[in-house]
Amino acid sequence: MLTKNGYKILLLSGCALYFQPTLAASGVKSGKSTPTHHAPRARETAHPAPKVVPAHKDEYISVRKQVVGANGVTNTTPGGGLMPVQSAAKSVSGVSRDYIAKQSPTANAVTLLAMSPGVVVAANDPLGLSDRMNVSIRGLNQTELGTTYEGMPAGDRLYYTPFATEWSDTENISNLEVSQGSPDIDAPVYNSVGGQIRASARQPSHKAGGYIDLSGGNKSLNRQFIRLDSGEIGHTGIRNYTSFSHTEVNNWRGSGNTKRYHVDSHFLKEWGHNSIAPFFSWNWMRTDVYTNPTLSQWNQYGISYNYAGKYSYGTSNYYKLRFNQRQNVIAAIPTQFELMPELTFKITPYIMYTRGFINSGANVNGQSMFVGDQSVGTVQLPYSVNNVATVENVDAYTQAAGGQNATLTWKHKFNTLQVGYWYDYFDHNENTSYTPVEPNGNVMNEYGGNPIKTSSGTVIGTYNGHLIQQTNALFINDTMKFLDDRLVLNAGFKEVMVSRHATSAMPGPTYAVNKNDAEPLPQLSASYRITPHDQVYFSASTAFKEPAALSAYVDIYSATTGKKTSSHSSNLKPEYSISEEIGYRHYGVVNFSAAAFNYNLTNRQISSIVYVNNSPQSFSVNGGGQTIRGVQAELSLPAWHHFSPYISGQYLHSEMGNNIQVGNDYLPTKGKAAILAPKFTGSIGLSYDDSHFFGNFTFNYVDSQYSTFMNDQSIPAFKTANLSAGYRFKKVGPAQHPQIQLNLMNIGDEHYLSGVNGIATNARATKGIFGTSIAAGTPTYYVGGDFAVAFSLSSDF
C-alpha cells in the first residue's frame, strides 16, 4: 500500500488498482460541532493522519499536511475543494481552502456555497460584496436557514439576513459546510427549517509571520488585506492572528459604490484535550443600493433601470438618498474542557452589537401630516415648493445580543450521551424619520440627527418599534455504535422556547404585542458503513422558524394620511417542518453522494420586500401548508494529472397545500407550484493545480422560478460561469510564497434576473373562490451582476 496526495493506493489481486481516500486527508471535519484543526502554514511539519473510518457526525478528524500555497491550499479535497468527505447521517456539502482560496477575495461565505447541490444564490453584484441578496436551499430562502460562525449564531436575529460579509474575510475562513436538510441539534438557531450553514475560521499559526493580499479590478475595485500571526507568545502556549482589510468598488450599474472595512482577531490556547479560543470581528460597510425592477421595468430598460445619478427638485430616487450602512461587532469565547477521561464540557459565550441604516427618498406634503393615527396639522418643510419637499427617509436600527451555548458530552464504550442548554437575549430598536434634502441634493444629517418635527417637537415618521426576545433551548442527544462502529444510531430531542415582546411608540390602537412559543424538535438518524468506502443513512428531523421582520409585530402608518399601510400580523404561528432523508455516499476512484428528501411544512412563513412610502420594508406572509420533495447528488474524481472535476445537481418538486387568504376571500392556490423553487439546478466545476500553475472553472444553471402564489409570473432560467487562473512562485526575498491570481466572474456577461426580491400573491387580477376580484400585485427582482475582473497579488512573510 502506498499513500499519495491524500489517497491510499491499494494493489489488489490480479493487479487491480483503486484509490481509497483517507478521510483525514481532506483537512475538514466529518462531523459538525467541534472546530477542526486546520492545516498549518507552509513549511510546517505535518503530523501523520490517523487511521479513521466514517462514523457518526460528532466524530471529527484532524490532520496537518504540507501546504502548497501561502493561503492554505493543500490539494487534498475531492473536486478541487468542492466535495469534502462527509460521514454525518444527513445531507452535508461544503467547500475547503482548496476551493475558497481560488475564488475572488471579495466573495462572502454564502456566495462560496453556490456550487453545492440545492443551493441557489440570487446575487445582485458579481463580486459577492453585497449582503442585499438572497440564498435558498431546496426552495427555502435565507430567512429559513440557520447560520453559525465558530459556534455562535450569525446574521440578523429578527430579519434572518445572513450578513455573511460580517463573519470574516475569506482569507480567514478554513471551511464552509451546509446541511441541506436539518440543523445540528446543538446549533444555536431558531429559523433553520431549510438547513444550516456553518463557517469555521482558520487557527492561529504556530510560527510568527504574516500574509498580505492586494487586489484590483474593473469598476475601480481596490482591496487590501493583511494578517499578522504572533506564533506562540513566549512560553504561554497562546497564539493569535489579527487581520485588517479595506475594500472599495463602484456599483456595476447605476451610480454609487460600496465601501467595507473589516478586522478579525483570533486567539487560541490549547493544553491536553482542553482549549480556549476567543475571537473578535468588527465590520463597517456602506452600500449605495441597486434598484429591484419589476418584470415590465426589466423588459423595458434592462440594466439601465437605475436610480438617478443627478439631483433636481423632486428627485426622490436620487442615488445618494438610497443607501444601506451597517456597523457590527461580534465576539465569542469557544471553550472546551475535559472534566475526566470520558466527560467533556463545551461552552461558547458570545455578544453582538449592530448599528444600521436603510435609507431611501420620498416626496412629502406638509399641509396635512400625521404621527401614527393622530393629525399634527401643517408642518413647515424646509426647501419645499408649495409645501412639498423631497426628504430622506432614515430607517435607523440598533441590535444587541448576548448569550451562551453549552454542551456536556459523556462517551462510554459504544455510547455517547449529550445534554445542552442555549440561552440568547436579543434587543432590537428601529424607527423612521424624515430629513430635509437641500437644493443641491445634500442632506444635513443622513443618520437622522436633524429630523423633521412638529411644532411640539415630535419626530415625524412611519413607525417606531422596540422588540425584546429571549430564547431558551434544552436538548438531549444519544448516539450508539454497533458492529465495530459500522452501525450508528442516534436519537435526540430539543425544546426551544422563544418569547417576544414588541411595543410601538407611535400613537395608535396597538401598543404591545406579546408572543410566546415552545416548540418540540425531535431528531432520529441511522447510518451503516457497508464497506470502508460506502455508507447509507436515514434521518428524520423537525425544525421551526419564528415570523421575520418588525412589521409582524408593530403597525406602520402613512405620515400624510394617518392610515395604516401595514398592520401587525394576526397570524403569528411559527413555521414548522417535518423532514426525512435517505442517502448514500461512496468515496474511491469516483466520489459520489446522493440523497432523496421529503418535507411537510405548516404555516410556511415567506419573507418579502414591499415598498411603503417609497421605502423598502420586510414582511412575512403566511403561505400555509407546503410539501417539498426531490433528489440531489454530487460527484467528483480525485486529482488526475492535476485536474479535479466536480458535478452536482438537484431535482425539486414543491407544491402548495392550501388556498391563500387575501382579505375576506381566498386565491385558488392549492396544488400550485411553490414560489422560489426552481425545478432543476446544476453545477459543473473543474480545477487544475500542479503546485505552481492553478486554475478553476465553475458553471451554474438555475431553472425558472415563480414569483407569485398563482404561478402567473416567473423569471426565466439563467446560467453563469466563472474562471480563475494563477501562478505560485518560489521564495522571492522576504516573500515566502508569492502568488498572482486572476478571477473572471460571469465570463459570458449574461444579463439576467437572479432571484425574487418582493413576491406577490397574484400578478394578474384574479377572482377568488368566493367571487371577489383580487387586484394584481407587482413582484420585484434581483438583477444578477455583469462581467467582473479581480486581479490579486498575495504572499506570506
From TrEMBL:
<comment type="similarity">
    <text>Belongs to the TonB-dependent receptor family.</text>
</comment>
<keyword id="KW-0732">Signal</keyword>
<dbReference type="InterPro" id="IPR012910">
    <property type="entry name" value="Plug_dom"/>
</dbReference>
<dbReference type="InterPro" id="IPR039426">
    <property type="entry name" value="TonB-dep_rcpt-like"/>
</dbReference>
<keyword id="KW-0798">TonB box</keyword>
<keyword id="KW-0813">Transport</keyword>
<keyword id="KW-0406">Ion transport</keyword>
<keyword id="KW-0998">Cell outer membrane</keyword>
<dbReference type="InterPro" id="IPR037066">
    <property type="entry name" value="Plug_dom_sf"/>
</dbReference>
<keyword id="KW-1134">Transmembrane beta strand</keyword>
<keyword id="KW-0472">Membrane</keyword>
<keyword id="KW-0410">Iron transport</keyword>
<dbReference type="InterPro" id="IPR036942">
    <property type="entry name" value="Beta-barrel_TonB_sf"/>
</dbReference>
<dbReference type="InterPro" id="IPR000531">
    <property type="entry name" value="Beta-barrel_TonB"/>
</dbReference>
<keyword id="KW-0408">Iron</keyword>
<feature type="domain" description="TonB-dependent receptor plug">
    <location>
        <begin position="85"/>
        <end position="184"/>
    </location>
</feature>
<feature type="signal peptide">
    <location>
        <begin position="1"/>
        <end position="24"/>
    </location>
</feature>
<dbReference type="Pfam" id="PF00593">
    <property type="entry name" value="TonB_dep_Rec_b-barrel"/>
</dbReference>
<keyword id="KW-0675">Receptor</keyword>
<keyword id="KW-0812">Transmembrane</keyword>
<feature type="region of interest" description="Disordered">
    <location>
        <begin position="28"/>
        <end position="48"/>
    </location>
</feature>
<protein>
    <submittedName>
        <fullName>TonB-dependent receptor plug domain-containing protein</fullName>
    </submittedName>
</protein>
<dbReference type="Pfam" id="PF07715">
    <property type="entry name" value="Plug"/>
</dbReference>
<feature type="domain" description="TonB-dependent receptor-like beta-barrel">
    <location>
        <begin position="253"/>
        <end position="747"/>
    </location>
</feature>
